[in-house]
Amino acid sequence: MTRLVRIGRNAAYTRTVKLSRARVSELQNDDVLSAVDGIEDTGMLQRTANQNRSWIQALLLAILPVVATFILGQMATYPNIESWYSTLEKPSFNPPNWVFAPVWTTLYILMAYAAWRLLSLPVRTPGRLATLTLFYVQLALNALWSWMFFAMQSPVAGLVNIIVQIGFILATIAQAWNVDKTAALCLVPLAAWISFASVLNFAIWFVN
User: What would the mean pLDDT of 146-153 be, rounded to a whole number?
Assistant: First the structure.
């Protein structure tokens, strides 16, 4: 009888130990899963923060250079419109002065949007860097043209600039077409307007 009691106690003890170990294992697994969930949540938050930071950086790198180009261009243009440009002979197809502001505002917005799209692409996207390099070169030439044509009061200097500028714009469009077609299409109006401006630049130089 005593032996049976001992056997029963041992069996009960064994079951208790097994249940305790199982419970400890469950708690450990829960802790591990919680830790994994926490790591995943942290990683997701970090990725979201990095994406937001990249988006803001792309926006600034797209807008600020375009705004700087606009300001630099106006600094050279406005002081010389009445004092010099208005005294030049113009061809018959020369637009009235009020046309230029809305046209250039539209073109600058399209340029900034195109740049933002390119900058938002993954860094290792094939052709991205080459396209952005071409874009910023043509943008610099854009700002420089106002200083060569208006500030220097030299239509021939402006003509040299604008011919080179057209080449870079067309190269930018061609390169962007393989990277982001929307960005490329955004630059087509710029190419059309600069082509017209080059003809106008040549005509002003020719008649003066």
Answer: 97
Question: In the 8-state DSSP scheme, what is residue 88?
Answer: S
Kindly state the DSSP code that residue 45 receives in the 8-state scheme: H
In the chain, the domains with their CATH numbers are 57-207 (1.20.1260.100)
Q: What is the 3 state secondary structure string of 100-133?
A: HHHHHHHHHHHHHHHHHHHHHCCCCCCCHHHHHH
Q: Pick the residue with more confidence: 54 or 175?
A: 175
CA–CA gap between residue 154 and residue 76 (Å, rounded): 12
Contact 142, 161 (CB under 8 A): no
Q: Compute CA distances 88 → 10, 21, 108, 162, whole Å.
A: 113, 96, 27, 19
Q: What is the 3-state secondary structure (H, E, C) of 131-184?
A: HHHHHHHHHHHHHHHHHHHHHCCCHHHHHHHHHHHHHHHHHHHHHHHCCCHHHH
Q: 156-170: per-residue pLDDT in tens? A: 999 999 999 999 999
Query: What is the distance between the alpha carbons of residues 100 and 97, in angstroms, rounded to a whole number?
Result: 6
pTM, two decimals, is: 0.76
pLDDT at 27 over 60: no
H or E element at residue 18:
helix 2-81
**CA–CA separation, 89 vs 6, rounded Å?**
120
CA angle 99, 112, 197 (to 5 degrees): 35
Distance of CA 128 to the CA centre of its chain: 11
